[in-house]
Each structure stands twice: as C-alpha cells, then as structure tokens.
Fold this protein.
Amino acid sequence: MSRGLWRDSWRRLRRNRPALLGAGLLLLMVLLALLTPWIAPFGYEQQNLVLGATPPSPSHWLGTDVLGRDMLTRILYGGRLSLAVGFIATALALIIGVTYGAVAGFIGGAVDALMMRLVDILYALPIMIFIILLMVLFGRSLLLLFLAIGAVEWMTMARIVRAQVQSLRQQEFVEAAVAMGLPPERIIARHIIPNTLGPVIIYATLTIPSVMLLEAFLSFLGLGVQPPQSSWGLLISQGVETMEEYPWLLIYPGIALATTLFALNFLGDGLRDALDPKSAKD
Amino acid sequence: MKALLFIAPLLLALAACSDYESNVSSGNREGILHWGNGAEPAELDPHIVTGLPEHSLMAALFEGLVAKNPHTLAVEPAVAQSWQVSDDGRVYRFAIRPSARWSNGEPITAEDFRWSWYRALQPGLGNPYAYMFAPIVNASAYASGELTDFSKVGIQVLDTLTLQVTLSNPTPFFLQLLDHYATYPVHRATIEARGAIDERGTRWTRVEHFVGNGPFTLKEWSLNKAIVVAKSLTYWDSDTVKLKQIVFHPIGNIATEERMFRAGQLHYTYDVPTAKIERYRVEQPELLRISPYLGTYFYRINTRLPHLQDIRVRQALSLAVDRESIVSYVTGAGELAAYTITPPGTLAYVAQPIAGFNPDRARAQLAAAGYPNGAGFPVTEILYNSSEAHRKIAVAIQQMWKRELNIDVVLANQDWKVFLAAQTNGDYQLSRASWIGDYVDPNSFLDMWIEGGGNNRTGWSNAEFEHLVLEVAPSAATQAARYDAFRRAETILLQEAPIIVIYTYVSKHLIHPSLRGFPANIMNHPSFKHMSLHRAEPEI
Amino acid sequence: MLRFILGRLLQAIPVLLVVITVTFFLVHSVPGGPFDADRAVGPAVMKALNSYYRLDLPLWQQYLHYLGDLASGDLGPSFKYPGRSVGEMIAAGLPATAELGFYALLVALGIGISSGVIAALRPNTAQDYIPMGLAMIGICMPAFLLGPLLVLVFGINLEWVPVSGWGGMPGDKVLPSLTLGAGYAAYVARLSRGGMLEVLSQDYMRTARAKGLAPWQIVLKHGLRGGLIPVVAFLGPAFAGLLTGSFVVETLFQIPGLGRFYVEAAFNRDYTMIMGTTILFAAAIIVFNLAADVLASALDPRLRQSRGGGQ
Amino acid sequence: MLLEVNNLTTQFHSRMGVVTAVDDVSFSLDAGQTLAIVGESGSGKSVCCYSLLGLIPQPPGKIAGGSALFEGRDLLAASERELRAIRGGDIAFIFQDPMTSLNPFLTIGEQLLEPLMRHRGINRSMARRRALAVLEEVGIEAQRFSDYPHQFSGGMRQRVMIAMALNVEPKLLIADEPTTALDVTVQAQILDLITSLQLRYGIAVIFISHDLSVVASIADQILVMQEGAVVERGTVEQIFQRPQHAYTRQLLAAIPQGAKTQHRPVAEAAEPLVRVQNLKTYFSAPSGGLLSLLRRPAEPLKAVDGVSFTIARGDIVGLVGESGSGKSTLGRSLLRLLPVTAGSVHFNGLALGALNPAALRTQRRHMQMIFQDPYASLNPRMTVTQTLAEPLLYHALASRKNVDKKVLTLMDEVGLARDSGGKYPHEFSGGQRQRIAIARAIASKPAFIVADEPVSALDVSIQAQILALLLELVAAHGLSMLFISHDLSVVRKLCDRVMVMHRGKIVEQGLTEPLYSSPQAPYTQALLAALPRAPL
C-alpha cells in the first residue's frame, strides 16, 4: 500500500460529498467519544435517586434515566464503548478474515477445502457457551468482549475475501508476479490483498453495525457490557422497556446509533469508490 | 412508485385481519381463565418439580390432605375430611373423605397416600423437597438412603380411609407442610405402568396418561405454547368450581406479558415490569395488585474471609445501608424495608428488628474494628447474577458504603449457574441472595442457618442459635414459648449479621377486573377452585 | 449435480463430528452444573440425579455414551425438562422457527431486492439514497426495538393484529415476520444493489437494449438473474442464522419456537439440549450453504458445468 | 435512400468538461449496400452508430446536432418509444465481443425468440419454428436451441448473434467489429455468412472495423474516421490505390506486409537456450474436492500433447494456431506457470522440472512473460514506478538509492514519458500500458521472453510501434523470444522461425519464408488461404 495510492484515494474521496458528510459525522462521534471524560457534564455513575427519570431540561440537556443519571453523559460514555466494540472487533475480524481468506483463496486445492471446513466448524460452535466460558475463565473485561465478538465475525469476512481472491488469482498481473519470481506471501501482501479492499470495505461497514447489535444482544442477556458502564445498544434495549413513559431514554441513543450507522454507510461507499482507481471517472 | 408496489400488499394484510377476538372477551363468555404462568414447567410430577410456575399448575391439578384458606392461609380440610392429633402432638390420624376421587373416577384411599409418600422419599427420584417430610419419624434417614426399610418410617395405613402419621417431635406447622405439592398423592397404577417408582421422565404426566385428584384435570400441553386444564367432574368439591377451563401461558418475558395483558390476551400476569408500575399506579390502579410476600432479599457475607470475620465490621456494613431510600427509590414496586429475616405477618410471630440506618454508629463500629474512616479496608466485591434489579440495588449500596464508610466496593455480575457455583463453593465476599418461605412459620427462615447447612453458605454458625432452633423451639409446649425461642435465635442471627437483610418481597400482578375470587395472600397461593369470571366488567 | 451434492454431504460428516466433540468438551468445562439451584439440593438428591444422567462417569465415557445414543438418533433427555427428550422438544419448536424464518426471508427479499433494484437503476441519485436509506433502518432498528414498536402501533393502538402467538389467531404471524425480516432486508438491499450495478454494466445488457426491449423487461428478465447471485450466496448462512436469531423475536411475540432453547440451554447448562441445538444448527449451516450453492448454479448455468451438471 | 445522416454531432459532458466524440459526420446508405466505417479506438466510429438509436447513456452523452433520416423519419427527433420499435426490428445490431454479448443466464433459444415476439408480434410456437430455421441458416444444429452461451465457441456465438439480428429480417444491420475477437479462419467464415445473407435479404450493412484489410473484401463504400471526424470517403479501390489523407496512408502502411527484413545469421550454439522434449500438459475435469480421489477421473483435456522443439539464443520463434490450439498453455508451461503433466524443459542446460520452488524462483529472473490484455496484466493499484521498481529491488538489480534512476532509463527504453511515473494503469492508453508491461519484463535483464499475443488487443497503427519496439529490444539486449499469435501476417513480419500448432500438437515448424511460401501440412495451408488479401 504505497503512499501514492492513499494520496490519490484521499483526493478522490474529497470530491464525494456524501462520503465527506459521512466522514465528518463519524469524526465528530469519535471525537466526542475521545473527549468524553472532559466534556461529560456529570460522572457516569452519578445517581440522583430522588430525581429519577426527567425529560430534557436546561440542567440535563437530554434528560435523566430511571436512576437519575444524566443521559447526555450516558450516551457519550455509551458511544465510547459502542464505537470501541464496533471498530476493534471489526478490525480484528478484518485482519484475521482477510489474511485467512487470502491464503485459502490463493493456495486453493486441498488446503483451501480444509480451511473452509474449519470455518464451517467455527460457524457452528455455539457462541453463547463460548462467550460464557471466556467470561468465566478470564474474568470480565471489555477487551475480552471485543475479542470474543471479533472471533465470531471473521468467518464471513474470510469467505468473502476467499471468493474475491479466487477470481483475482486468474488475473494476469498475478501470473506476472509469479513469473517475476516473487514468493507467495509477497504476492498475497502486495498484489492480492490491496485489490480486495473494495468488497472488504463494503462488508466492514456492514460488520460494524452488526457487531454493535451483537454486543447489545449479549449485554441484554447480561453477558456483554457490565453496568454501570453502558453502550448504545444497551441504552436502547433499556429505553425500549420504558418507551411510552420516558420516550427520550430511547430516542436520543437511537439517534446517536442511527447517525453513526448512516455515516458509516456513506463513508463506506465513498471509500470503496475512492480506493478503486478504475471507477474514478476523471 | 415502484416501492409502493411492494409495501402496499403488506399494509393490506395488516388491516385485513383486525377482526380477531381477544382472549379476555371470549374467556369471560365461555368461563376460560387466561393465566400468565411465567415459564414452561419442567414437569408436572409433584415429586420432581420446584419453582413458582409449577406451583400454580400443581394447585390446579392436585390436592393434598389439607388446603389453605385463600384469605387467611389457615389450614382447611381437603382430601382429609378431618384429623385428630395425639396429646403429645406427635401422632396425627387423618380421615380420608369418602367422596374423594381420582380424575379417572377411582376412589382415593389411605394406601394411595402411603405409596405416594413412599415414592416422594425414594432416594433415586431426587425429590428436591424431600426435606418437607423431615418431621416424620425416620423420613430423612430413608430419603438419604441410610434406612432402607420404609415400614420404620412413621406412616401407617390403619384402614382404607384412615392414615396415621407419627412425628419425631411435636411440629405445630406440620399441617401446613401437607399443603405443599411434595406431599400430594399420585396415582400408583398410572406411574407403575410407565416405569419404576424412582424413574424420572417416564412421561406419566402426558395428557393421554395423566391422572390427578385436583379441581382441574390436564386437557392439553403444547410445549412453550399453552397448558390447558379443564374442570374435573370427578373432583369431590366440583360444585364450588366455577371456571370451565384455565389456559396457562408460559411467557418468559415480562415486558411481552404486560403488552399481552394490555391487548386483552390475559386475565392475570405472572409479574409486572418495574418500569410500568408507576404508570399503572397513577392511571389504572384497579388493575394493579401489589401485596407483601413471604420472601426476604438479603446479602450473604462470607464470614470465612479475614476482614469480614469481625462482627463489628459486618454490623457497620449493615448499619450503613439506608433501606428506606432503597425501597422508595431503587426497587420501585412498594417493597417493605426489612429489619428481620422473617417477613412481618408470619402468623402473629413478631421478631426483634435490627437497628435502622445509623451512619455514625456504623463509622464507630468500623473504626473499633481497626479501619478508622475506612482506611486499610480491603476492596470488597458484591457478587450478583445478571439482572437489572440486582444491579440497581448493588450500585445504590456501593455508593452508600463509599459515602458513609469511605470503603471501596466493586460489583461483579455473573451468569446464574456460575453465581450459584461461586456461592456454594464459598468463593465470594458479599453475594446477593433471597429466600422464599415454604410455609408460613419462622422455622422456614431460621432452620437453614445451621453449620454446613445446604442453604447457609456463609460459613457462620452459632451453638446457642442451633440449640434454640433445633432443640428448644420444636419441643416448646406452647406456640408462645416456641415463638419466644425463635425470636431469641433470630436476634442472635441478626446481631452477628452473617447476612444483611434489605427488603421484604412483594408479589406484583396485573389482574383484569372480570376475575373474582382470588384474594391477595402472603404466599401468593392461587386457589383456582374459588375463582370466577364476570362479563359485566367494561373492557380496559 | 447429484455427485456434487453427495460430495459436499460426505465432507459434512467430519465437520459435524468435530463440532460435536469440541462442543461436548467445551460445554462440560463451564463451571456450574445443570442441577445447581438456588435451593441447595441435598447431597443424596444430587448423587441420584448425577447417576441418572450418567454425569458421575468420567467425561470421555459420557462422550462415548452420547455418540452411541446419537448414532441411534437419540439426542438424550433434557436436564431442565425431565419428562422431555431433546429430540421431541426440537421437533416441537422447529416448525414455528422454520416458518418464522421463511416468512422473515420473504420480507427481507421483498423489501431488500425491490429497494436494491430500484436503487441500482439510478445510482448516486435520490432514487438510490431513499430506498437504501429505508433498508438501512433495518440495521439501525434491532429486533428488540422494532418488535415492541410495531406491537404498540399495530397491536395495541390500532388493534389490527394480535400482539403475540403463532398460528393461534389470524394475522398473528405478520408482526414477528416483519420484525425478524427487517434486520436482513438491509443486507439483501446492499447485496442486490451491488449485484445489479455489476450486471447493468455488462455488454449483454446493451444487446438487450439494442433489441428494443421495454426497460422493465431488460432489468427484470435479463438483469435480475445475474444481479441476485451475491444475494443467493448470502442466503445460505443467513437462513441458518435465523435459527438462533429468532430468539429475540420468539420471546417478544411468545412464539413456541427453537430460538429460546438455543439461548436458555446455555444458561441452564442443559448439556444435551446445547448439543442437540448445536448439531441442528451445524447441520442447518451445511444444508443451507449447499442449497445456496445449488440455487446459485441453478441461476448461473456456467457454474453447473464445474459441478458435473450441464451436458 | 434508406439512411441519410447529416452533420451528426455527439458530445459527452463529464466533470472534466465536454468531449466531442462525433463531430459533424454525414453519410448515406441505400438498401443492399455495405458501408464500412474504419478508424482506431477513440475515433468515434461506434458512438456515431449508437447515437442514431439512442444507445449511448443519456446523462453523460448528448446529441448536439444533425439529423438521421431512416426511411424519411428523423431518428434523432424520435421519442424513446418510437426508437424502441425500430431498435432490433428494422435496425439490428451485432457487437464485437461474442463472449460477453450474449446473456449467460438464458438459453440462446430464449434470446432468439425475444426480438421476433417483441417486434413481429408472433406467438411463441411460431417464433420458435422461425428461430430454428434461422439457426440452420447460420450453420448451428437445431438441437442446440436450448443450450447456454458458455457451451459455444467464440465463432459459434457470433453466428448466434447474427441469427438473432437477422431473425426479424431487418432493413439495416450495424455490425460493430464483429470479427475482431475471432481467429482468422473463423473470421473468413463469418464475413462470407454476412455477405451471403445480405444478398439474399437485400439488407443494408454498416460494418465498423479498425482493420482496413478486413473491410476490403466486403465494403462498397469506405469511411475513414479520426478523432470524431470523417477524414476521407470513397470506394475500396479509391482508398487502397489513391489514399488522399495522410492518416489513411498511415493506416495502410501499418498493415504488416511481406517478410521480415533484417535477417540475422542464426548461430547454431552448441547448447540451445531452451530445449523442450515431449512436453505434455493435461487438465483433469474439475471435480468436487476430496471426492475426486474416489471416482474414475473424467477424460482429461490434452492442451499440450507431446511437443518438442529448441530455441537458440537471439532467436525469435513464432507460435501460431487458432484459439483452443493450446499455444498459450504451451507458453505458460515453458515458464512453469502451469503444472506440467510430462516431458522436460531445459533452460540454459538446466532442467526446470528438477528445481525446488526457491531455486525455480531465482531462475525466473532469466525468463519473463508479456501478456495479451495490457490492462489485466498490470496491478491496478500500483503506479508505473512501483511496478517497474519491484523486480529491480527484489532481484537486487538496484538499491533503494538508484532504483528511481534505473526506472527512468527503463521508461526511456520503452518510450514512456518520464513524468508519467506516478500515474496508474487506467490513466494510460492500451499501447502505453503494453509498453509498461514490456518494461517490467526486461527489468530483470532476462535472456528469454514469452510474448503471448502481445499486440492482438491493440489498434493497427499502435501494433506496428510495439512490434518495432520488441525488435529493437531483442537486438539491444540479445534476447530470444517465443512470439505467440493468431495473426499470421504479424508473425511473418517478426519471427525468424515459425511453429504451427493445432489441437495440442505442432503440425509444422521451419524458417518463416519457406513455410509461408510452400506450406506442407494441410492445416497450415488452410490457415494461409483464410488470410484476407489487401489489394495493395
């Protein structure tokens, strides 16, 4: 991935308005998440039992939850966690999935069949038990949660990359690289993987939301995020229970999640077009 | 334009089927009660099951020697028409009601009960409530397998309709035990046709084989969908039974159950989401029923740990808990702050409450124990099983101890089974716990704190306490003397504080006004035979 | 084609065997047994239960017993529901889950493909962003949010449809299918949009236009078959995923399905049920991936040749 | 007059500004006549025809002016609905690449029925009988009606396209380079087929091509186009004998004619650079993973079936044959890019088969390959500099410091502008991309190069430049080359010796001129006879 490619992709990306909008929004979210400890108006555990759930007010811009905690703070801290889960788990899935898929796709034959059967096996293992076991053996840590979710998502990525690599392998520039005497690992790294970026980016922008929702599902069952920490998914699932009584507990985290996912979607499309020199119309 | 092409049919389909009739309206017309039952029952065999969903089903399908009065929970004759108790209170002689019949029409005899209790005590069967028969002579020995000759157990058949039971000690609450489903009779022929006496999973409880002796009999059982029981024509008291059928809905998610209730699918809900209680209390109070329940929520303290062995530390922790603010702000369903392990209203038994919220005395005790202003007090962990309710309480207490005692507490949330295993093996510091009474008597809350007791798990024991509960109380001449022994024992327990009692449970349900004959009681015991449905009530 | 299917099924056997073995030892290594209960169970009772369910034997013996029973088609008794066998419970739950999954896929394909195709006709214009935006909602609104919302609006306020049950009352299948399907609609929409864009740029579409065919004929008759190949590849794992994914919808709408067994078994440490559902799920993945490949070769005749079909 | 086009102008509006693809073009055509439009890629010859029927994508493209009267009606003013009635009905099309112009998902029968039912309102069974008859006419057996496109060869598919076009008895047939992608023998058959059908049905034909020699045999009128404008028009005889415009002359000169000029004495070195003995490369039928071990292996495809030859140092050997003859498989097998079934290849006396992978990789430096599709053979995400620097750095022929300088010298050698180092493959024309590929091949200073159809995807004039470059490099670096091609006239111009391959075997080999003047093998004779004769 030479300097040249990034410079040109950035030049193309700058021209794609929706992608820029997406990038801007995402940057805003990430920035807010990083600055949370300094900009959060209240401590994330700070309760005010007497207050309870109150609608948005000057003192609490986004209202308070059932335990009287400030929703704006909860959403900021929740964002930190959701984005972390989203990016780290997806990055993990990306790294393992792309390498695994590229190797399986490139080598082909019996090795490929074996690697794909292994993926089938991993797909079938019950993730619930797997995650409970991890929680119990290594205790409760967020990093563990990210690893567990990442370990569940990479299989689909591997399958997509494998299909992509199998078609790339027939391309003549790969044959030319072989003819040049380059070893397989160098061919995979410099010629195969950079050309799988298109679909990988698209699928990554789909993986991040599904990872966030998987985390919400696990937290809903008590296996994911440990209160008092929270995530957007958990805030939404708790907000649903009091949807009619305290609608703001659901609406604001919902908006935060929705904007991030839309931003991701547009940015993903923009990135895919930018990284694919052929599609640039200029 | 094209999108409409696809969405339109979906909307039409939705509108087209709005002509369905809600369960409540059809139920009221046909006398069918729709009962939210919480979860799919593990089994319908009274000698195997535990848990509340199974409790309601047993109450409909079976009946013991005695029953509970729905209002006062006092003991009433049921299959036993009458009974005499010997002067020393150790020998009970029950007269079986001649009109008592099994659901297949056969008469119920004393031998049926002898055999049923013989089965209930089979070591191989693994009956979790075998200890219900503990007061009976040699019953526990037989259940644990030490004794193999059942004839030595104090259960004799005098004649076809007379059953005599001999206890090792006079046990005033023994009659209440006979209302528990572990003591219900089962139909011998049906069971032995399907397998050995102590064999599980023989499916004798399936609809096609089932024989029971309760006011209702099993009509339909589809997994995770519904269990339907119909009025039993052979039941001796079938005239008082007004309902034609009861449909038990196994709804795991209480939010789903609340929505079904609002859509008119249920007459009665198993539970109510805490978040909705305030809204019902304000807008539709007549639907909401919250009443005290024979159960206490408390924290177990692992007294084996060095920094928790000192009684003053445990008392300090207890004193620093502001129970009133917890029940008014955190639990939110109108629970009662608990200062004793036995719930108030346990049939005129009044325990000696511990001191209330007293931060100064708490700090003094902690300082006396060598941790002035919390200095040097190791970080302590509260363990609880994953649920939002437990977490809120734990967080509230964590903050109280931080504010009052300046000690650091961390929270650990574990999956249910891991939580149980941790408690049983004692690898916890503080752990959330609760106990629901099996019968309305202080003994049900006190007999577990004996050394090495299965349900103790705190590592605490006290000779004086065990002497009072195991020897003095059972042999007390009068009820008053017995209660006095329990009171002194409970005071020791609460003072030494291996546990921190927090609040007394309440049972909370949504009940449709058309359902009558189900008064609130501390055991939340449903007596279906007294219930009825009245159409006059307006739809909610 | 038959030889290809047989080949894939033969390959499935070792995969299943490994899944069973790994899951068996994984499940038994998690602390907390099936009979641990809040009410401490007496030692005598615990001993009786363990011997009844053969838990007192060494693990590898239990494993051999389990394989023996499995060979004869017996998935063993459920620990949590003594009167029931795992096979019986799965058989009771499967129809509802399968039916729910099927309707959900219909919804996903209906919404997904239509918005994908409409979006692909004019990429990067309003006609592209609006349908794709609608489909994206499926991802932002998880089932545990969309379900209650639909119930509130259509069930309780408008009373158009029942709020729960499956098959008991007319129209009670509409909301659950919508809730479960919406989640997948977004994926189908993006995949069909990508597939259609790819196909619309092919030369043979120009040939179709040169034949003077009507636009809808060009898109639907010539474009759709090629455009849906990526969607078909996605259907395999997706349909298998429905088996577990339906847990949330089944609890929200009180549907007597299989999803709840899959999740609750893990919490109850119901070993045989976990094994049973895992084997079912593994078999489902293998079958549905195979079905997706067969469907793909049905759609794309070029694939048939490499799979022994064709001439 | 069937078709009269006046001052047709078509423009493309992109972010970079307006590009005039067709600039004030006029021509006319009568029934039964054949008009050939000749020009290189980018000359607007196709766009001009597509504009007539609105087949160019409207948002970027726009018809800026002119008129096109077809039987009195102005096509440019017609509504989309009216155009649809004519497209595929009165005016039919055939496209260049048969491989991608047929819908792979539908049977050819289904695709044949469509125009009939759409334009002639015939019901399905009537249309089916009509279609079967047309298939016979173009030489395809009736029972292949429900086969799929991928089951036909390139030539057969082009016949299906022709059947599809003629099925509705159009008045005008527009053929856009119908034979460019075909072998020379198949090309001859297709041309005969078109002319015979034209005479029988009196159809007017517009034949678009970039190869003057192809249109010479069938066109009545020829139009030469360059950058969107018509530079010359006239009969075949006028264009070939008295070309007026410099560009026309340049096109004519680029047609490879006559024998190879500079003959270099071929030194019979003791040890030939490349010695091939009884080389076999079979492909077993694709099978299902592990199962293939159990069942009887299906009949293998014998791509290269026992081939022996030698290539001396400095020698350029031509390898000719039709598509499917196994020539590119042979080329790849030489370099071990494909698993070889049997036989041996000695390079510089070294048996390649015996080398372990690592040793083979170091040997690869000395033997390189140039591919047919210049675009597919370059990594789209690497700039020119990176593509050329990779071999230099990997084989330590340059250090980090002087690699840039070496890359620039390479670019000079192949005639690439020095400032284009930072560009990507898609920013170059076909010819320039091939120059990059050639530069990459010679970067590692190889002794032997396999060139697999290096120029067949290029325009005639650019073809000539690349061939000249290759000759120059062979001379400068003393390279020896195996030149694989289906174009006999190009091989004649370039190679010292020639081998003719048919169905995996070499049917004849020898010095170029003797083989061309007196071919021995019947297959070689048929090949040479099919060559279109330009009336020079």
User: Anything to note?
Assistant: Residues 307-311 of chain C have pLDDT under 50 and may be disordered. Chain C has 13 helices and no strands.
